[in-house]
Amino acid sequence: MTGMWSVACAAVSHAGHVRRVNEDAWLARPEAGLFAVADGMGGHQRGDIASRMVIDALATLPPAPDARTMRDRVETSLAAVNRALQQTGGGAGGVSGSTVVVLLMCGRHFAVLWAGDSRAYRAGPDGFAQVTRDHSLVQELVDRGALTREAARGHPMSSRITRAVGVAPELVLEGVQGELRAGDAFLLCSDGLTRHVADAEIRSALEALPPEAAAERLLELTLARGATDNVTVLVLHIRPGDGTGAEPGGDEDATVVLREGMP
């Protein structure tokens, strides 16, 4: 395996049918092998500002020479945002925070870092799986066997998260890593999608459709079912390179289609 890939990605973001402000934000940097979705915490102070601070910090990171360096830079950057939100949120008399899920790609490998209930999914030669595990009270009930995954999706406490950028003095990110395979597809999303769309529907879109069509399909399903929250969908497909050495973290010509949905 040469580790040479090209990346096709597409993203859509929409305020939904209920909220007036879109507190989600996203980032796609194929040339740096860096992708992210952040969801400002609804009901708290300045959630849209918090998510934008997260994404802006990641957007300024320089490409790294190796995976370990890139991961360190992401963790350091998000820790700095956490401190800044702690200071400004406390001074304003309220919490300001954001979930985050970050996908890093370097050579043959990937890593996912996250805090909160924004998710990453993977579909491909190794099957379909939810890569992340929600940091939420409902997930804790599922882990204890007190609630099924099906019941968790519509639970009244589904929005009560236990970890996020800006809500505690120290940010603790969870992380997983693995090996990329040609044919892999990844989805990063805010919980506005998973409140309305089942895993089986996510799998179908990732496996059957190219990135732009998959992102549009998942957004359409969410809007058709009420879109009670902001929704952001970022889809990536990993394809064999063209022999020029293009790979995540080094392909300036990767296909990117990004669109901000209208409220």
Kindly describe this structure:
The longest helix is centred in the N-terminal third of the chain and has 25 residues, at 67-91. This protein is 30% helix and 29% strand. The chain has helices at residues 47-59, 67-91, 137-143, 149-153, 191-194, 199-208, 211-224, and strands at residues 5-14, 24-29, 34-40, 98-106, 109-115, 119-124, 127-130, 174-179, 185-189, 231-240, 255-260.
Number of strands: 11
What Rg is obtained from the alpha carbons, in whole angstroms?
17 Å
Shape: globular
For the sheet with most strands, the description reads: 6 strands, mixed
In short:
With 263 residues, this protein is of the alpha+beta class. The protein contains seven helices and eleven strands.
Write the layout of secondary structure elements.
Blueprint: E1 5-14, E2 24-29, E3 34-40, H1 47-59, H2 67-91, E4 98-106, E5 109-115, E6 119-124, E7 127-130, H3 137-143, H4 149-153, E8 174-179, E9 185-189, H5 191-194, H6 199-208, H7 211-224, E10 231-240, E11 255-260
Parallel strand pairs: 1-11
Antiparallel strand pairs: 1-10, 2-3, 3-4, 4-5, 5-8, 6-7, 6-9, 9-10
Helix pairs in contact: 1-2, 6-7
Keywords for this structure?
11 strands, 7 helices, 263 residues, alpha+beta, disordered C terminus, six-stranded mixed sheet
